[in-house]
């Protein structure tokens, strides 16, 4: 018969000592071939805790037992616990190259749960029990238990925004906030931490915010919050001055933001414009357009786009002009001659250019008129190209200039609607 001894339950009367033969036998009791270690196992999986001992002549006198805390799970080949997920697995006897025989019992735990975490002791029952300890850690995938707001948040412009996300799991999950198809309001890709604060909401704060909990066990858990910032209309004019010409088409564009979505109306001066054969209104997303077909003289002038919602209104002003655009120089900055310089410029105009005025000065001197030409009479421009881009270019050769000196130049052009503004200074 095998006997099972546990150190914690064994006491001797005062003045008595164990029999010397017993101590001699205990000296030759089996020893462990397995070292205790820590096992980190995902919840729901199966783990096998090993316990291998070396076989001795007296091995049959000792019982190998598995315990958890003070609870006995197995004794020898007998399963004591009623837990159906625990199974005792005999170790197949094996002889190593030195002739030593090993045996033992492994403990299998199936479908591990959080409650299975802790220390498992494999013990050889003897006068002085020998034991190894395996520590079982249960790894639990992340799960977001709390998120606030739960789904959608409506917030007024200027108000603070606070979002909070908490998750459980083992190890403790890391919480990372990100934004769907956009950067975070501070310009970063994401932010780590349970709480995400935005001090002052604006229209750029709107969007889907995603909380991701990850502890590298299983798949990350994610939840989303939609932030909807309410604010009065804000208008950006795409092009304050639109150049066109008689008989051509013109398009005036306002970029309109607002929540709730604003309604947009167009005015020419103080007259509200409807949809006619002459005028059409289009919008695509935040882009609102007024299209003027077959521009007439009466269409040249000032326009306003006005947007309004329940929180307020805004307006943007635009100008439809028949004037040439600003001229720009396309000549090199250095001349190949000491006292001569060949200069040229380009301008866009939807009606013929009638004349140019070219101004020049020595750097740091006052500007004065260098050249005044009627291009229709003197033919110093190229006619409209076939691409219908309405670009005109003109060359000019300045002579008798001060050698080795820096000059500055500006130019302007006139068509049937008048003079455009002076160009930027050319150095």
Automatic annotation (TrEMBL):
Xref: CDD domains = FN3, Ig
Q: Where is the Ig-like domain?
A: 30-133, 142-226, 233-321
Say yes or no: keyword Phosphoprotein present.
Answer: no
Q: Which InterPro entries match?
A: Cell_Adh-Cytoskel_Orgn (IPR050958), FN3_dom (IPR003961), FN3_sf (IPR036116), Ig-like_dom (IPR007110), Ig-like_dom_sf (IPR036179), Ig-like_fold (IPR013783), Ig_I-set (IPR013098), Ig_sub (IPR003599)
Pfam families xrefs:
fn3, I-set, ig, Ig_3
Please give a single GO biological process term from the UniProt record. Answer: anatomical structure morphogenesis
The alphabetized UniProt keywords are:
Immunoglobulin domain, Repeat
| Name of this protein | AGAP010422-PA
Q: List the source organism.
A: Anopheles gambiae
């Amino acid at each position: 018969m095998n006997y099972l001894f546990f150190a914690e339950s064994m006491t001797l009367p005062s003045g008595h000592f164990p029999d010397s033969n017993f101590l001699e036998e205990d000296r030759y009791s089996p020893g462990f071939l397995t070292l205790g270690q820590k096992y980190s196992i995902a919840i729901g999986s199966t783990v096998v805790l090993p316990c291998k001992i070396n076989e001795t002549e007296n091995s049959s006198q000792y019982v190998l037992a598995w315990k958890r805390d003070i609870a006995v799970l197995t004794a020898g080949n007998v399963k004591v616990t009623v837990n159906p997920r625990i199974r005792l697995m005999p170790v197949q006897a094996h002889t190593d190259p030195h002739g030593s025989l090993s045996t033992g019992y492994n403990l299998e735990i199936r479908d591990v749960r959080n409650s299975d975490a802790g220390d498992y002791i494999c013990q050889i029952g003897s006068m002085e029990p020998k034991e190894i300890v395996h520590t079982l850690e249960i790894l639990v995938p992340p799960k977001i238990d709390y998120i606030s707001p739960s789904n959608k948040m409506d917030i007024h412009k200027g108000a603070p925004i606070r979002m909070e996300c908490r998750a459980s799991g083992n190890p403790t999950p890391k919480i990372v906030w990100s934004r769907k198809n956009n950067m975070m309001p501070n310009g970063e890709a994401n932010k780590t931490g349970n709480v995400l604060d935005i001090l002052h909401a604006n229209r750029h704060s709107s969007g889907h915010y995603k909380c991701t909990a990850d502890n590298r066990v299983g798949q990350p858990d994610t939840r989303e919050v939609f932030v909807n910032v309410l604010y009065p209309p804000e208008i950006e004019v795409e092009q304050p001055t639109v150049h066109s010409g008689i008989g051509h088409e013109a398009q005036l564009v306002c970029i309109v933001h607002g929540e709730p979505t604003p309604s947009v109306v167009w005015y020419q001066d103080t007259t509200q414009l409807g949809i006619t054969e002459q005028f059409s209104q289009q919008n695509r997303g935040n882009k609102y357009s007024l299209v003027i077909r077959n521009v007439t003289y009466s269409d040249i002038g000032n326009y306003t786009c006005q947007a309004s919602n329940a929180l307020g209104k805004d307006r943007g002003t635009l100008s439809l002009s028949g004037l040439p655009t600003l001229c720009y120089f396309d000549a090199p900055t250095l001349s190949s001659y000491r006292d001569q310089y060949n200069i040229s410029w380009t301008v866009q105009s939807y009606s013929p250019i009638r004349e140019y005025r070219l101004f020049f000065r020595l750097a740091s001197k006052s500007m004065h008129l260098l050249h005044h030409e009627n291009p229709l009479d003197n033919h110093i421009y190229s006619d409209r190209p076939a691409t219908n881009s309405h670009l005109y270019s003109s060359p000019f050769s300045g002579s008798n200039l001060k050698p080795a000196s820096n000059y500055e130049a500006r130019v302007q052009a006139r068509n049937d609607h008048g003079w455009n503004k002076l160009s930027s200074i050319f150095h």
